[in-house]
Amino acid sequence: MKHDAIRKSFERFLRTRDLKLTPQRSRIFERAFSTHEHFSAETLYDWLRKEDGPKVSRATVYRTLGLLLEGGFIQSLDVGRGELVYEHVTGHEHHDHMVCLACGKIEEFHDERIEALQAEACAKKGFVVVSHAHRLVGYCRGCARKARIEDAAEKRSASDAAAE
Amino acid sequence: MKHDAIRKSFERFLRTRDLKLTPQRSRIFERAFSTHEHFSAETLYDWLRKEDGPKVSRATVYRTLGLLLEGGFIQSLDVGRGELVYEHVTGHEHHDHMVCLACGKIEEFHDERIEALQAEACAKKGFVVVSHAHRLVGYCRGCARKARIEDAAEKRSASDAAAE
DNA sequence: TTTACTGCAAATTCTTTGCAACAAC
DNA sequence: GTTGTTGCAAAGAATTTGCAGTAAA
């Protein structure tokens, strides 16, 4: 199964660097890979605290997240204003994100043709890709509609006050 | 000139929201648009402190950066490990980034065909794009070569120790 | 055994906020 | 004048680090 392969790869990664496979690291790794949600360090820490298993401190969560990032097992994704979230990397199946500014929802999309063009751009520059993040920020269908309505109202009252 | 158009647009943005055009906001705006580099809030604050002009406090830098972000004048770009950097948005000419994990260099690339496919994906989901960030993380030509060499050395010593 | 790991709490770093004086409009 | 803005310093988050005890390999 794929999960085992990734786990093996993580173990190999640790061995290569003379790092140890501890219950904490193992738990953090498993938890990160058991969800398809995006999570922040704090969120992950909360999950681990609520569920049972070997105790994991916040410091260890941060330290391990750093390792997973270096190893390319997870990647970080900037969701606007300061908040950093992570998601695990599942082999080569990338997906890209649409982040709604209004409701915060993250939709995912994927287009092979974009991937291909991307690979081409890399080849041209001699760049070796480890991971990629493609993020579109804007408004989802629902919020866009709402925004359009509010916008219209705003313009109306603005032109009432001072013919803009 | 384009710069003036963007400036006007910023002024309009402020007016629409009943915000005032202060020397501080003006200075921050100008500084952000006078560079093509990527900068963090702290970096921008440093620039402003060293160069002369109306005094701007750190708090105001953060507050104004927030405004510029909301207005879509700048966008934030996640360069891995926690550091948030910004860059100004120059009309509709987007560019995407390749961030080197080893040396930190950020190369830019652009492909109209990718933009088109992206627009298509948005149309399909009814998503209205405000800005986009397309980021490839990996190794630039120079660092990739170096990494390959080190990697080989590592593998060699690893298999010496324990025939993996 | 040896070397690395963990939890804790203190230290940093980054960012936000309350407030009184001040400045656009 | 009215309303929003600024700087400051304190408050809050988020993340890192030193250290002594603990546990993989």
What does this structure look like?
The structure is a homodimer. Chain A has about 160 residues and is an alpha+beta fold. The first copy, chain A, folds into two domains: about 90 residues, Orthogonal Bundle (Arc Repressor Mutant, subunit A); about 70 residues, Dna Ligase, domain 1, CATH 3.30.1490. Helix content of chain A is about 50%, strand content about 20%. A three-stranded mixed sheet of chain A has the order 4-3-5. Chain A has a two-stranded antiparallel ribbon with strand order 1-2. In chain A, strand 1 and strand 2 form a beta hairpin. In chain A, helix 2 packs across helix 4 and helix 3 packs across helix 4. The C terminus of chain A is likely disordered. Chains A and B meet through helix 1, strand 1, helix 5, strand 5 and helix 6 of A and strand 1, helix 5, strand 5 and helix 6 of B. Chain B binds a DNA duplex (25 and 25 nucleotides) through helix 2 and helix 4.
